[in-house]
Amino acid sequence: MRLDRVVRSNRLWRWVLATVVLGLAALGYALTIPVRHPAAARVAALAVTRPVAGFQAHPHAGQSSATASLLSAVKAAAAATPGETAVYTVTWKGKSKSSATALVVLALPTVQDARAARTEAQKSYLNRASLTPAGYVYAGSLALASVPGAKGATFTGGTSPVTTATTRRTDAEVYALGRVVVVATSQGPGSQAKAAVDRLALSEYRHLQRTGSSPSLGTTSFPLVATLSYAGVTGAVLLVVLASPWAVAAVRRRREAAWEAAVRRERASRGSKVVKRRAGRAAAARSRPPRSAARIRGRR
Fold first, then answer.
1. pTM
2. Which residue has the higher pLDDT, 152 or 36?
3. Please, are residues 55 and 94 in contact by the beta-carbon 8 Å criterion?
4. Which residue among 28, 30, 38, 292 has the highest number of C-beta atoms inside a 10 angstrom radius?
């Protein structure tokens, strides 16, 4: 079988191999390059934006990393399902420097994850010693009748749990609705903190009832640098697969040409030797005397 026929017979297998490589590359790209993350606008829509009475109208809001959360349930959910796990915080400042209220919204992939995160949040925010490093002491539990399952605690500044009209106080309430966990806190003098945290928790609860407590947050993005790098590597592999038969054929052709040239040189070399040998024999024959002359000389 000639070389060109071999190349043509391998052409089908070359394209089949290129198709397999391209399919594997597409599968690898789909599994490694796309990044699934919660859409910022969808996360922000989970939190109420209307300020509580007595606080500034323009809050400080932003999304924080779920993988850096202090709650292990949130961190585990972010590692397993990053597109449906989010932490969003909204903070309003009060009229005085010592008053503020904040809302932390935790979005989890499943209701079971939300329940686990709620249990951890209650232990973290409502623990008797949770605000001890900040100079607060536990003053008792809170209850919010309007929010089913909500639990709360109040902390007072100083060493006495007794609350007065001017006592520095921080109240916190935690509850879950669907796949969303809400932590509402308020800091201020006397009963102002309790009234603010109640209004904030109730406002967020009604907001989630209207907008839905089982949102779809995930969106997919394709990093440009990673995509271009992956495409470059895939293109190089395909080029090797498609160009290798021509390269092999070219090498074979060069080898055959070199072998044929060597054969021609050998034949030419052998021919010149034969010509020289015959020429030498002819010259020797011419230098010898004829046989008749040799006989005459012998007779003499």
1. 0.66
2. 152
3. yes
4. 38
